[in-house]
Design a protein that fits this description.
It is a single chain. The chain is mostly helical. Among the domains are: 62 residues; 88 residues, no CATH class. The protein is 76% helix and 0% strand. The protein is built from twelve helices and no strands. Helix 2 packs parallel to helix 9 and helix 9 crosses helix 12. The longest helix is centred in the C-terminal third of the chain and has 52 residues.
Length: 340
């Protein structure tokens, strides 16, 4: 797709030149990249590494680096008027509030998608392909609604995005109710209505959001504003995945033990009913409480564990070689996630 886009741009896009082309800002790029790296890397990797001391130092260091970036951008603006980010943009209330709303929106949307994906794959035993295809109705809803919202936004303004946000919230609430109602028996067909509604809502928000946010920006600041907008979206999504992931896996690890013990008799009974001999079912039931905790702890703790600590216990894995591998992920995995 990228090659096709480049070829089409070479033919269809007319050449244009800015009357006063801005200069590059490599120092600004380096500073903001360093600040984001110092903040996001420990957030994403901290839980898996056991939150070593350097993760907190890294996040704390992102603040002065970000302050240095702001200071340098002010100097760059006075020197040649070509900073990476035009800081005067944040003096516009509509732009500042819009960036905050966009970050918060994508923080919630991305984290919701993360938890749903984990539920489908770990809880219900879906393959990665099956889980991805399950999200296709969501993507289709985004595609359909984006075209309609782009035409409605000039007439109804912010009302379109507000309506889209409410529709998306209703779709997500519907998904939660469907999962609670069907439990481990839920299938892609039951999830379909909620995914379509959520996708329609998101498409209604996405299409006009950038236009509304950039409406009051001066033409010469459009490039900088667009960059800030897209970076804000990515930053919100990254923080959402990191923070909600930490909360989710923390709750799963702390509460899964009691949940696994409570359903162990039922698990043993269903494995026996599936025709598994006692000698196979017993190790599965014994290893079951460890399934949702794989990869936890510090790097040193994981290095002390035998049998390939970066992987889940063998009885926890899904596959096609045995009836056990087909039975356990969709039932036992749901019990751990749903009941904890």
């Amino acid at each position: 797709m990228g090659i096709v886009a480049l070829a089409a741009a070479a033919v269809l896009v007319r050449e244009s030149r800015a009357p006063s082309p801005p200069r590059l800002d490599p120092v600004g790029v380096a500073l903001i990249s360093a600040a984001l790296l110092l903040l996001l890397y420990p957030l994403v990797q901290g839980r898996q590494l056991g939150w070593p001391w350097w993760t907190f130092v890294s996040m704390a260091c992102s603040v002065p680096v970000l302050a240095a970036f702001v200071g340098y951008e002010r100097i760059k603006a006075r020197r040649d008027g070509s900073p990476l980010v035009q800081l005067r943009l944040f003096g516009q209330r509509a732009f500042s509030v819009g960036i905050g709303i966009a970050m918060t929106f994508f923080l919630g949307v991305t984290s919701f998608a993360l938890i749903l994906t984990l539920f489908l794959q770990i809880g219900l035993g879906f393959t990665a392909l099956h889980a991805g295809l399950t999200f296709l109705p969501f993507s289709g809803g985004v595609l359909v609604a984006s075209g309609a919202a782009a035409r409605l936004a000039p007439k109804f303004g912010r009302g379109v995005t507000m309506t889209g946000a409410l529709v998306m919230a209703a779709g997500m609430a519907g998904l939660i109710m469907i999962v609670r109602h069907y439990g481990q028996a839920v299938t892609t067909q039951e999830l379909l209505p909620g995914l379509v509604v959520a996708g329609l809502g998101m498409g209604t928000v996405l299409a006009p959001l950038a236009d509304i946010l950039l409406a009051g920006v001066r033409e010469e600041d459009a490039g900088s504003a667009s960059g800030v907008f897209n970076t804000g979206i990515q930053l919100g999504a990254s923080i959402g995945v990191a923070v909600i992931g930490v909360i989710f896996f923390g709750l799963l690890g702390s509460q899964s033990g009691s949940a696994a013990a409570a359903v162990a008799p039922q698990l043993r009974g269903e494995l026996t009913a599936a025709g598994l001999p006692r000698g196979v079912a017993t190790p599965v039931v014994t290893a079951f409480p460890r399934c949702p905790r794989r990869g936890g702890g510090s790097a040193r703790q994981r290095s002390d564990r035998p049998n390939r600590p970066n992987r889940s216990p063998r009885p926890c894995r899904s596959g096609r070689r045995t009836e056990l591998a087909r039975t356990e992920p969709g039932q036992a995995g749901y019990w751990c996630m749903g009941r904890s």
